[in-house]
Design brief:
66 residues; alpha+beta; 3-stranded antiparallel beta sheet; 33% helix
């Protein structure tokens, strides 16, 4: 059985995800809006992908959580 803890997830956040890999894709617009309200422009929507665009280097803890 595969189990992941939150720290493991936060240590490996992909910069780009294909639309086909998004769970509950029909809720994507709402999720992107909420994420970008919390951290301005954190999620970029491209043709066929979404992109994580943290504003800080290294990303702040809130940016990782969003």
């Amino acid at each position: 059985m595969l189990t992941l803890d939150i720290q493991s997830i936060l240590n490996f956040i992909p910069n780009e995800i294909s639309w086909q890999d998004i769970v509950q894709f029909e809720k994507l617009d709402d999720r992107v809006t909420i994420a970008n309200d919390l951290c301005a422009n954190i999620i970029g929507v491209n043709e066929g992908t979404i992109e994580w665009c943290p504003n800080e280097n290294p990303p702040e803890h809130l940016e990782k959580l969003v």
